[in-house]
Amino acid sequence: MKAVIYARFSSEKQNEASIEGQLRECMDYANFNSIDVIGNYIDRAQSAKTDHRPEFQKMIKDSYKHAFDCIIVWKLDRFARNRYDSAYYKNVLKKNGVRVISAKESISQGADGILLESILEGYAEYYSAELSEKVKRGMTENALKAKSNGVRPPFGYYVDDTDHYQIDETISPIIKEIFNLYVDGVKITEIAARLKERGVKNRGYELNYNAIFRILTNRKYIGEYKFGETVIPNAIPAIIDEQTFNAVQQRMARNKKAPARHRSEDDYLLTTKLFCGKCGAMMTGEIGTSKTSKQYRYYKCNRAKKKACDKKTVKKEWMEEIVLDEIKDLLANDDIISELADRIYELQMQEDNAATSIQAQLTGVETKLNNLVEAITQGIYSSATKKALDELEERKRNLEIELFEAQMRNPVLTKEQILFALYNFRKIDISTQEGKQRLIDGFVNSIYLYDDHFVVTYNYKGQSKTVSFEELNSSPLTSKGSPNANKSEHSCSGLFFM
């Protein structure tokens, strides 16, 4: 398993020593669990109460490259400013096959909050769709005028006072050089190395492979503006001619590498949830092959892989099905569902609601608009009135977008909505990997596996349940495999493998 570490300290209370401490403890956790750390993302003097954390945002973007499987943080409060943002970003990461792990919190503080995040994921999808429509309505006019729409301009451009793109004459020669070098056969890695030697940076960051790749594929450099399905040629000043741009795309097509790896259908659902009861290390998935070339899948203690623990392995399918059955038993209890809804509702009421402030501003703008329209109907109209009307309408559009963004990040759900979402967990299709994963992520905090039992801790008041294998032997679950099941070659039919 490959991981990156994310660390952050705020300027008010912490310093560089805090970063070093976070990194050390995260690295200790990784070493103990045999996790390969391939890099760090560090935000210095940054509060989690803002999204403007450059390294955090870079980490989220890098997750799309599928280079790492998990993110290790010292504590979960290092990750996001509130549970709503946490739900949003974890949902993005989950779609990219990346999980977030806390090095110091084996049982997450406020376990109910994890379940709230799971519920919010569904509502985030709804708000995202609504926001998309709002953004389209509010930005289409700007798009047709080829305005920036608040998007950061590509390297080599700047946005003027009228929100239009203009060429940065100090940077554009570098853009041309990048395109020409690539057309001449120079590799992207070599281009990056040459620019690094000269100290070329974009907003303080070196132009690495990915940055140069984005430059070489960005059609804005030939003057093309795109918003949604709207494409406007020659809408902004071009830095690169179409012939050069097309030559670059043709070379890229010839050199196209194999696509990034996709998540396997045989994903190990309990990754980052299942721990060794003997030594406490994480248990991760492995595949074994018998003499007849038959594959079998199991979970193995990461320290056992290094001969530092004698914990036996456990069959993947058996363990996952037992855990899913435990979750289904919990969901079948109406009293537990009702109590969960009460706790989650109280929990979200403790959060600050940014939408309230934006709604107040929007109401004020709408009042001014109504007053202005009333004045116009009474014959008070001039160029100044028209300008004021246009400015207020644009302000209203922007506030509507901000409001939907706030509602997406920080929705306030009614008790009925929460109950509805919890009951819908019963309807999740567990014949799919996605359905199984959603149930496990939403309800299971951790599982500690021993030789004769396991302890599952839920995201429900941090409550734990001990399940003995002796009990399972006297239940219908024995058909799924048990410690006493008959062993076939490599002992792959039983619960444990030696």
Automatic annotation (TrEMBL):
Q: Which PROSITE patterns does this UniProt record tie to the protein?
A: RECOMBINASE_DNA_BIND, RECOMBINASES_3
Q: Where is this region: Disordered?
A: 475-498
Q: Please name one Pfam family that this protein belongs to.
A: Recombinase
| Family matches, as InterPro entries | DNA_bind_recomb_sf, DNA_bind_recombinase_dom, Resolv_N, Resolvase-like_N_sf, SSR_resolvase, Zn_ribbon_recom_dom
Full protein name:
Recombinase family protein
The parts of the chain that form a coiled coil are 382-409
Cite the Recombinase domain residue spans from the record: 154-258
* Composition bias type Polar residues, residue spans: 475-486
- The source's domain of life comes to Bacteria
Q: Which UniProt keywords apply?
A: Coiled coil
Give the organism's phylogenetic lineage: Bacteria, Candidatus Scatousia
Q: Name one GO molecular function term.
A: DNA strand exchange activity
Residue ranges of domain Resolvase/invertase-type recombinase catalytic in the record: 2-146
